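Possible regression after last week's pipeline update?

I re-ran a chain I had predicted before the update to compare outputs. Posting the input and the new output here so someone can diff against the archived version. Not blocking, just want to make sure nothing changed silently.
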Amino acid sequence: MNDRLPPLTALRAFDAAARHMSFAKAADELAVTPAALSFQIKSLEEHFGAPLFIRLNRAVELTEAGKALAPITAEGFQTLS
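New output (post-update):
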């Protein structure tokens, strides 16, 4: 993990994917391609130095790190709203 804040676009991608438990549905919500969303998630995982999702055939699951981050991002975006 580095000392800089993570990119906001990557956090938005993570938040949507964590809520939907689907990269495709999150991409639809954010009006981006699934590949773009996946790139944002990967950049966030690199930022934190840990995987946030377990990628399955047609689904995703949160890792322990993802489970810890999900409520924090949800609360942050709700506060900003």
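Follow-up from reviewer: compared with the archived run. Residues 19 and 79 are 16 Å apart (CA to CA). Marking as no regression found.
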